[in-house]
Design a protein that fits this description.
Helix content is 84%, strand content 0%. With 99 residues, it is an all-alpha fold. It has one domain (23-98). Helix 2 (20-49) packs antiparallel against helix 3. The protein is elongated and about 70 Å long.
């Protein structure tokens, strides 16, 4: 099977090639940036309510942010594992068909 480019994969209506494994690192970078911006907004908003709320946000915010990152990363890794399983099964099927 010949390898298609990104646009070729994007417009592959037979779904023989997948786009998600190619863009997952970009999606993860965007998620990290969104979580960081949300954390900063949360801290600023907490300090607007008072010093105690701001300190609480500074202490608890990173814990929550890391938990969100772990959750997103785990789901993305599960998705990539599924794609790799697909590739491995396809390879095994092709090897079996040759024999």
């Amino acid at each position: 099977m010949d390898e298609k480019g990104f646009l070729g994969s994007l417009f592959d209506f037979s779904f023989e090639t997948f786009v998600f494994p190619r863009v997952i690192s970009i999606i993860y970078a965007i998620v990290v940036a969104v979580i960081a911006i949300a954390y900063l907004i949360f801290v600023v908003g907490a300090f607007a309510r008072g010093a105690a709320a701001g300190v609480g946000a500074l202490v608890l915010g990173p814990i929550v942010a890391v938990l969100y990152l772990i959750m997103v990363r785990a789901w993305m890794e599960v998705a990539i594992v599924m794609f790799r399983i697909h590739d491995n099964v396809r390879t095994l099927r092709e090897l079996k068909e040759r024999t």
